[in-house]
Amino acid sequence: MELDEFVKSVLVNVLLGVKKAQDAEGVGAFVVPSWDGGHQYPKNSRVSSGARLKSTIIDFDVAVTVESSDRTSGGGGLKIAGIGADLKGEATSKDTKVSRIQFGVPIMLPENQRNWYEELTNDKNA
Predict the structure, then answer these.
(1) Which residues pair with 93 in a beta bridge?
(2) Which pLDDT band holds residue 113 (cuts at 50, 70, 90)?
(3) What sign does the dihedral 43-49-54-57 (CA atoms) show?
(4) Higher pLDDT, residue 70 or 96
(5) In the chain, what is the straight-line distance between the N-terminal and C-terminal CA atoms, in Å?
(6) What residues form DSSP beta bridges with 106?
(7) Rg of the Cα trace of the chain?
(8) Per-residue pLDDT tens for 60-75?
(9) DSSP calls for the chain
(10) pTM of this prediction exceeds 0.85
């Protein structure tokens, strides 16, 4: 998988997972609530909360593998993160290098439109 597709997939799936959790019956209203009554969240340097906006940083730590090889019949290829040419020679020598890439992507968490307090008190009164 290409790095850009991997990052896109992770970010989209995290946000979709949050949205699906918000839709869960009985507990969804507690996931990234839009109104938290001034609740003080535990200190966490990865999460920011204020003015009804909540954000976090998704950290990536990715290993990128680069392979170069030569066949006895000549030619060669370059392989990055599992994508490259298929080498079909009888004798092949490979040189593999692995690099680490670390980065973070800040995201705004989707605001929940459900009211957790109303749902909590309605459940107790039912």
Answers:
(1) 70
(2) confident
(3) negative
(4) 96
(5) 50
(6) 57
(7) 24
(8) 998 888 877 765 555 5
(9) --HHHHHHHHHHHHHHHHHHHHHSTTTGGGSSBS--TT--PPP-TTEEEETTEEEEEEEEEEEEEEEEEEETTS-EEEEETTBS-----SSEEEEEEEEEEEEEEEEEPPPB-S-HHHHHHHHHH-
(10) no
